[in-house]
Write a structure and sequence with these properties.
The structure holds 2 protein chains of 2 kinds. In chain A, about 20% of the residues lie in helices and about 30% in strands. By secondary structure, chain A is an alpha/beta fold. Chain A has 2 domains: about 210 residues, FAD/NAD(P)-binding domain (3-Layer(bba) Sandwich); about 120 residues, FAD/NAD(P)-binding domain (3-Layer(bba) Sandwich), CATH 3.50.50. In chain A, the strands form 7 sheets. Chain A has a 5-stranded parallel β-sheet with strand order 6-3-2-10-23, covered by helices on one side. In chain A, helix 1 runs parallel beside helix 6 and helix 4 runs parallel beside helix 5. A 5-stranded mixed β-sheet of chain B has the order 2-1-5-3-4. Chain B has a single domain, classed as Beta-grasp domain (Ubiquitin-like (UB roll), Roll). By secondary structure, chain B is α+β, with helices and mostly antiparallel strands. The termini of chain B are far apart. The chains are: A alpha/beta, B alpha+beta. At the A-B interface, strand 20 of A face loops of B.
Chain lengths: ~350, ~110
């Protein structure tokens, strides 16, 4: 059980700056994020897209913004729990007991939800009969590629993940690559390589096809794929892989007893506290009259929520407002020697 | 104002007036039309404002920009007449546009 003054859910720009604010005022914190890297939407959705409305930064990409925020946290020791999703939140006396899907447990008086639009999950196949084969013969990510050796694998998608795996698995497996159109959005060199393999019949390429049906009782036996012109083909296959990118799902947050309105959480504008004492929501996931879904709003919300955390984390101390330009104690925390 | 018609997957029809300059996605979100999620807020990064455009309208729309077709690869059940509604800017030329919403966005 990890004890901390505050637990931040979400390592996007808002979560990172909130961590900075907590450390600056002398509180400790830990951060959990479902993605395997820091940065949230900025890194997952638009690492290369320029942003023009960060105060005092005329232009930066999602990746640059993330790197700058990480740099700003350098003076502090903050533990990140990546590839973990918070599943359970329960009240235990004055503290919240929090548990992740990997079994990590926290005890904290303050939870700050900086979850964006929820956690990123792989986009799945639409035919309903795919569900029963999920994690048995239908996968959305690969943990151990050796299981595919000598088998027939049908890969769906048109991006780098689909192409990279088609090329890699074609060495030891029979690979079908299926995509809804005849253009691929992967890197050109990868597309060329895949086309070469297709020409040499190392990869069976099916374009303008989509998955229509997965067949089999207990085990997957074959799939039906449908062409744009409604022509249906049946392919014998042992495994199916889908690479359609990620979607955002509110996920378990919906079960924590919070006032939720259209995938966003209602908060007050003094502490950014939810209807549950000690649970705050900041950034895109919170809503209040006049809410602007901008990164700069998330910074403001995080700064205020961090001050609110002080009261519950240090009930016997009084929070004193200080400037970074003049406070000795803040400079000590930043490791700045005068 | 141009009239835009949104038809939910269950057949429910919403005909509303949307101001010029808004996107078809914003028209739906501001009028609480279910079936368009628009998780990323219109930055062409999520494919959750996916719509099917009626045949007769599809060819009249401005062409897809780079990136829209790539995002549509990730949409739920994309078809030939799929578009992202955040990329469709409402104007007088679009008066009468009809879009069908997919069964779901994710």
């Amino acid at each position: 059980m990890i004890k901390t003054d505050a637990l931040i859910i979400g390592a996007g720009p808002t979560g990172l700056f909130t961590a900075h604010q907590l450390k600056l005022i002398g509180l400790n914190c830990e951060v959990v994020d479902n993605l395997d890297k820091i940065g949230g939407q900025c890194i997952e959705l638009y690492p290369d897209k320029p942003i023009y409305d960060i105060p005092a930064v005329p232009e930066c990409t999602g990746e640059e913004l993330t790197n700058n925020l990480i740099n700003q946290l350098k003076p502090f020791d903050i533990k990140f729990h990546l590839s973990e999703r918070v599943e359970e939140v329960k009240k235990n006396n004055e503290n919240w007991q929090v548990k992740t899907n990997k079994g990590t447990e926290f005890s904290t008086p303050n939870i700050i939800i900086a979850g964006g639009v929820g956690s990123f999950e792989p986009r799945k196949f639409s035919p309903k009969d795919c569900e029963k084969f999920e994690n048995k013969s239908i996968f959305y990510s690969i943990k151990d590629k050796s299981v595919f050796k000598g088998k027939t694998v049908s890969i769906f998608g048109g991006g780098d993940s689909a192409l990279d795996w088609a090329i890699e698995l074609s060495k030891d497996s029979k690979v079908n690559l299926i995509h809804r159109r005849d253009e691929f959005r992967g890197a050109q060199a990868t597309v060329d390589k895949m086309n070469d393999l297709a020409k040499n019949e190392k990869i069976n390429l099916f374009t303008k096809y989509q998955l229509k049906k997965a067949n089999g009782q207990d085990n997957l036996e074959s799939i039906d794929i449908e062409h744009d012109n409604k022509d249906v083909k049946n392919l014998k296959t042992d495994y199916v892989l889908g690479f359609f990118g990620l979607i955002m799902q509110l996920g378990p947050i919906a079960n924590w007893g919070l006032n939720i309105d259209k995938k966003t959480i209602n908060v007050d504008t003094e502490k950014f506290e939810t209807n549950q004492k000690g649970i705050y929501a900041v950034g895109d996931i919170c809503t209040y009259p006049g809410k602007l879904k901008l990164i700069l709003s998330g910074f403001h919300e995080g700064a205020l929520a961090a001050r609110a955390c002080f009261k519950l984390a240090r009930p016997n101390e009084k929070y004193k407002f200080e400037f970074t330009t003049s406070s000795k104690s803040i400079k000590d925390r930043l490791g700045i020697k005068e | 104002m141009p009239k835009i018609t949104y038809i939910e997957h269950n057949g429910k029809i919403h005909s509303i007036e949307v101001a010029n300059g808004l996107t078809v996605m914003e028209g739906a979100v501001q009028n609480n039309i279910p079936g368009i999620d628009a998780d990323c807020g219109g930055s062409m990064a999520c494919a959750t404002c996916h719509v099917y455009v009626k045949e007769e309208w599809f060819n009249k729309l401005p062409k897809k920009e780079d990136g829209e077709e790539d995002m549509l690869d990730m949409a739920f059940e994309p078809k030939k007449n799929s578009r992202l509604s955040c990329q469709l800017m409402v104007s007088d030329q679009l008066d009468g546009l009809v879009v069908n919403l997919p069964e779901k966005q994710v």
